[in-house]
């Protein structure tokens, strides 16, 4: 991890203090989460300009991603325990606090003149907005994995940020990179990813099925069309012939266009069938190694129904898992 750069607002002593915390978060696995919490808490009360706060946030991405991936694996494989639940709760709070920091930095970049950037530079503000959306989406997906309700306000925040990114023509820009928590690389992918998990009822599945659904959702989310509607205006009432409709909250509905996803799922199903016939399941990318051929084919039936057209699902109704027949075709 590179050293924290000195700026006009960051003294040598302050830079060294931030670097100690960042190094600890990187190297000490046992203290990683509390160290990340300390960094975020100090950033929230810091008077550093947005550029410096973003620099510290960027340098904590690697240990944050490591912690997130470790917890996500535990949720799929480890027995549920009070200790794991408390750690997941802390991680969810941290992700949402990080999202709020990114949004605050974005607002500052837009409304305050900077050293190398004119005031009102929306483009410069899109990258932290995409990071905020990625963090919000990761927090939601963790709740879905744990089969916990997602507060409507969380979905609303995702919808608001996604609309901002769309207005800045940055929804499909490669703003997240390889250290994306949702591993979708674009803001569109980060926004759609937890919606696809909710539609698939990921919380009602076991470890291998969850792994396969998450892998496919990451792959499909960036290629999914999105329209964010106002529920109160009745914009989500029309039957969606192009994909499912997700009523995220009393304020926002999301209509997905999944025609490309349906084609990709059919191609994936054909590879699963061919691999089953040849007893070579390891050659199917995206397939969880612990799944049998029969389980994989059942999940494919579920996903084609969950992500297909004409279905309207509320966020609460999606929690236990979709009521879908799982007969093989």
Question: Can you describe what's shown?
Answer:
- This protein has eleven helices and four strands.
- It has 329 residues and is mostly helical.
- The protein is globular and about 60 Å long.
- Helix 4 runs antiparallel to helix 5 (82-111) and helix 8 runs antiparallel to helix 9 (207-220).
- The chain has helices at 12-27, 32-44, 50-59, 61-77, 82-111, 122-145, 152-167, 187-199, 207-220, 259-278, 293-306, and strands at 225-230, 245-247, 252-257, 312-314.
- A hairpin with a 4-residue loop joins strand 2 and strand 3 (252-257).
- The N and C termini lie far apart (51 Å).
- It has a four-stranded mixed β-sheet with strand order 1-3-2-4.
- The chain has two domains: 13-75 and 82-112, no CATH class; 149-329, no CATH class.
Q: Can you summarize this structure?
A:
With 329 residues, the protein is mainly alpha-helical. The chain has eleven helices and four strands, in the order αααααααααβββααβ.
Task: Looking at this protein, list some descriptive labels.
about 325 residues, 11 helices, globular, disordered C terminus
Give the spatial strand order of the biggest sheet: 1-3-2-4
Question: How is the main sheet built?
Answer: 4 strands, mixed
Number of strands: 4
Helix and strand succession?
HHHHHHHHHEEEHHE
Beta content: 5-15%
């Amino acid at each position: 991890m590179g050293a924290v750069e000195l700026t006009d607002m960051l003294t040598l002593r302050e830079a060294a203090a931030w670097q100690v915390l960042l190094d600890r978060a990187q190297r000490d696995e046992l203290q990683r989460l509390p160290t990340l919490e300390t960094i975020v808490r100090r950033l929230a009360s810091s008077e550093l300009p947005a550029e410096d706060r973003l620099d510290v946030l960027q340098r904590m991405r690697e240990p944050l991603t490591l912690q997130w991936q470790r917890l996500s694996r535990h949720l799929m494989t480890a027995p549920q325990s009070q200790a794991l639940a408390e750690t997941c709760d802390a991680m969810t709070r941290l992700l949402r606090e990080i999202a709020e920091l990114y949004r605050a930095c974005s607002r500052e970049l837009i409304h305050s003149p900077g050293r190398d950037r004119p005031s009102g530079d929306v483009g410069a503000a899109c990258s932290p907005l995409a990071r905020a959306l990625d963090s919000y989406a990761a927090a939601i997906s963790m709740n879905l994995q744990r089969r916990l309700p997602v507060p409507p306000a969380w979905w609303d925040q995702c919808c608001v940020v996604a609309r901002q990114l769309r207005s800045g023509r940055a929804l499909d820009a490669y703003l997240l990179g390889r250290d994306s928590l949702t591993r979708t690389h674009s803001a569109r992918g980060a926004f759609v990813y937890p919606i696809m998990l909710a539609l698939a009822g990921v919380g009602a599945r076991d470890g291998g099925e969850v792994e396969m659904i998450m892998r496919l959702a990451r792959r499909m989310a960036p290629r999914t069309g999105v329209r964010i509607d106002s529920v109160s205006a009745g914009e989500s009432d029309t039957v969606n012939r192009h994909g499912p409709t997700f009523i995220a909250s009393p304020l926002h509905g999301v209509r997905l266009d999944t025609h490309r996803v349906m084609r990709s799922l059919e191609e994936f199903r054909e590879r699963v069938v061919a691999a089953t016939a040849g007893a070579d399941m390891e050659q199917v990318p995206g397939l969880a190694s612990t799944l049998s051929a029969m389980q994989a084919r059942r999940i494919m039936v579920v996903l084609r129904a969950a992500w297909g057209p004409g279905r309207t699902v509320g966020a609460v109704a999606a929690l236990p898992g979709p009521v879908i027949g799982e007969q093989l075709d």
